[in-house]
Design brief:
By secondary structure, the protein is an alpha/beta fold. 40% of the residues lie in helices and 17% in strands. A seven-stranded parallel beta sheet has the order 3-2-1-4-5-6-11, sandwiched between helices. Strands 8-15-14-13 form a four-stranded mixed beta sheet. Helix 5 links the parallel strand 5 and strand 6. Helix 4 packs parallel to helix 5. The structure holds NADP nicotinamide-adenine-dinucleotide phosphate and guanosine-5'-diphosphate-alpha-D-mannose. The site of guanosine-5'-diphosphate-alpha-D-mannose (GDD) has 24 residues, from helix 3 and helix 6.
């Protein structure tokens, strides 16, 4: 039985990757960090399964990484842990560098220290943010990098140190240069999930308005569940290499919002420009989307569009398994149910609920 170690196991990708690898017969070990509140919602359904194990550790703490890697002795490591929010990286640039740059080095060194350099394959979660202020459209493995945020600069180090260890020590370490991928498990402050949750709440009378930043920003959005398969395929390739993972289709934040609100039953009409742009509910004339400067970034990446030809050709991966329309539908359907459930819980007397046996 192969053993995989996943850092960032509590995150969106970590939870899907755990499910995927357990399904492939792996013994899965995840690294979690201590928190005063429970952030294990995404992996709660896996806890207690015989082939799913959790260990405390932190990417800022070399000794914990050496300990976990030495104990598990994994065949594959998926380094997904990161301070992953681009806007937050402007507020916490030093912490972001420590985890997203030096943290990668700590993993690579821990593998060498524990004597696993010849046997352990390592996947590094690199990002389309490396292309930043893009120098070419669409972006492929040969497009020059131009990182455009503290997050992207830190991830640039992570990418190059991974490549360096491959070349210097002949280690099997690879980067997946993943374009944005979303899901019903996406963190609630990333733009897609912020939109789908707000559309569901506005449609059900629980919220008046949604405030967004740059509506014209363009992204290549895929479904996270499809992308974790690619992480695994990259580590099964005969030779270690780096791959762009994307759908090859691009949409704006405005288009995402239009489709999400439509699926929630609200047809939007857009008026105005820049900070004055508004999304109006055609049915009643109410303003439901407004632009706020609070969500603008000091430097923003506005034209991400990936070319997944190499992954399709060499890994046999299908970049269009889930379409953009289907992705929006999955997320909105999930959030419509989530909001309805929260609303039901608000209205039902808990004693009555317990009596009915709904809550155990
Ligand atoms: P996410 O949902 O934000 O998850 C991040 C994970 O990293 C969480 O499990 C978090 O743990 C963990 N983490 C953060 N700081 C840590 C630390 N100091 N030590 C140990 N663990 C730490 O991110 P995601 O969307 O799943 O993305 C996974 C990876 O892919 C990240 O590296 C991200 O930068 C990269 N990436 C994501 C995308 C995308 O579109 N989703 C695209 C390209 C690259 P807590 O739960 O304790 O906070
Ligand atoms: N978060 C957020 N909130 N973004 C907004 C908003 C808003 O209210 N309004 C507009 N945007 C724009 C941002 O300016 C950005 O151009 C775009 O929407 C996408 O923002 P995010 O969803 O926060 O994602 P990201 O592209 O910055 O970063 C994500 O994808 C990267 C891969 O390209 C993260 O998952 C990163 O970890 C990942 O590397």
């Amino acid at each position: 039985m192969k053993k995989a170690l996943i850092t960032g196991v509590t995150g969106q990708d970590g939870s899907y990757l755990s499910e995927f690898l357990i399904g492939r017969g792996y013994d899965v070990h995840g690294v979690i960090r201590r928190s005063s509140v429970d952030f294990r919602e995404r992996i709660a359904h896996l806890e207690g399964q015989p082939r799913f194990h959790l260990h405390y550790g932190d990417l800022s703490d070399t000794s914990s990484l050496v300990k976990v890697i030495g104990l598990v002795r994994p065949d594959e490591i998926y380094n997904l842990a990161a301070q992953s929010h681009v806007q937050v990286s402007f507020d916490s640039p030093e912490y972001t560098a420590d985890i997203d740059a030096t943290g990668v080095l700590r993993i690579l060194e821990a593998v060498r220290i524990t004597g696993l350099a010849d046997t352990c394959r390592i996947y590094q979660a690199s990002t389309s943010e490396l292309y930043g202020k893009v120098e070419e459209v669409p972006q492929s493995e040969t497009t020059p990098f131009h990182p455009y945020s503290p997050y992207a600069v830190a991830k640039q180090y992570g990418f190059w140190i991974t490549k360096e260890y491959r070349e210097a020590y002949h280690m099997f370490c690879c980067s997946g240069i993943l374009f944005n991928h979303e899901s019903e498990r996406r963190g609630e402050t990333f733009v897609t999930r912020k939109i789908t949750l707000a559309a569901a709440r506005i449609a059900q009378g629980k919220q008046e308005k949604l405030l967004l930043g740059n509506l014209s920003s363009l992204r290549d959005w895929g479904y996270a569940k499809d992308y974790v398969e690619c992480m695994w395929l990259i580590l099964q390739h005969e030779v270690p290499d780096d791959f762009v993972i994307a759908t090859g289709v691009q949409h704006s934040v405005r288009e995402f919002a239009t489709l999400a609100f439509r699926h929630a039953g609200i047809e939007l009409e857009w008026t105005g420009e820049g900070l004055d742009e508004k999304g109006i509910n055609k049915a009643n004339g109410k303003v439901v989307v407004e632009v706020s400067p609070d969500f603008y970034r000091p430097t923003d990446v506005v034209n991400l569009w990936g070319d997944p030809s190499k992954a399709r050709r060499e890994l046999g991966w299908n970049p269009q398994k889930t379409s953009f329309e289907e992705l929006v539908r999955i997320m909105v359907d999930h959030d419509m149910k989530k909001v309805a459930k929260e609303q039901a819980l608000e209205h039902i007397n808990l004693a009555e609920y317990l009596e009915k046996g709904v809550v155990k």
